[in-house]
Amino acid sequence: MKIWLVIVGVGLVSLLLRSSFLVILRGRHLPERVTSSLGLVPAAVLAARASDPEGPAGQARATSAP
Amino acid sequence: MPGVLPFSMVAGIAAVQAGFTPVQSIAFSLIGYAGSAQLIASQMVAAQAPVVLIVLSSLVVNLRFAVYSASMLPLFGGVPLSRRWPLAYGLTDQAYAVTVGRPAAEPHPVAYYAGAAALMWLSWQGGTAVGALLGAKVPASWPLDFAVPLSFVALLFPVLHTRPQVTAAVVSALVAVVANGLPFRLNLILGAACGVAAGLLAQRSQAGRA
Asked: B127 to each of B11, B45, B153, B169, B210, how far by Cα in Å?
């Protein structure tokens, strides 16, 4: 039961975050300052993910390996 | 996209090793469809963390999707609401990076994104299903983990076009490493926030010189 709650909870959170602006703010224009800072987001997020010294995969396998 | 396969297999394996059945692991991948959040949730399930804490952690790890969503907004101008939901469901780091780095002359950016998202979805679901079905049969000595950072390095370089973007990437990476001790992988959020701030400063500095 707990695992199904986790599955549904994580699924809901993920979908709401993904659709937050695409659905809620549809048709509205964002200020230029916001759009220019958004242009920096992919570089910043992907660099953080690439450099993560304890990537989640390594941790997950290390902690759960027999 | 092929780099996603080992990453997704790791997600499937980690879930089964954490106590998910193969069916639950595949369902998690279909419903959650968020690599890092799946891996972290699997870890936390194995550690018997409360459900609320697991969901909150996935919220923090997936905050970047809200930023991606905002960034993709101009692209979806004429797309009806009924099509936005499935397109939003397919929003991943990989689909986003491929779409942002698309050729400037691409006449159908939404179709371009949909194609990338569909390919990514198939790769991810296939990989996690294989991982879930193999489960504990895969030796921990198999070097699958390397695929995670490498896939992000491969995605990073096509989105580095300007000096502010390079500044944002360098600062973000440095902060993420230095702040590694923070809980709930907040080092990633902090790194990205500092990276964007540094990139904005670089933008201002460039504009001041022009």
From this structure: 8, 21, 20, 29, 49
* pLDDT tens digits, B42-100: 878 887 888 998 898 888 778 778 878 888 888 887 888 888 999 999 999 889 888 98
Q: For residue A23, which residues of chain B lie inside 8 Å, CB to CB?
A: 81, 84-85, 88
ipTM of this complex: 0.75
Partner-chain residue, chosen from B136, B173, B203, that has the shortest CB–CB distance to A51:
B173
Query: Distances in Å between the alpha carbon of B5 and those of A42, B2, B174?
Result: 22, 6, 28
Which residue of A2, A8, A14 to mutate against B (max B Cβ within 10 Å)? A14
Of A19, A44, A60, the CB nearest to B39: A60
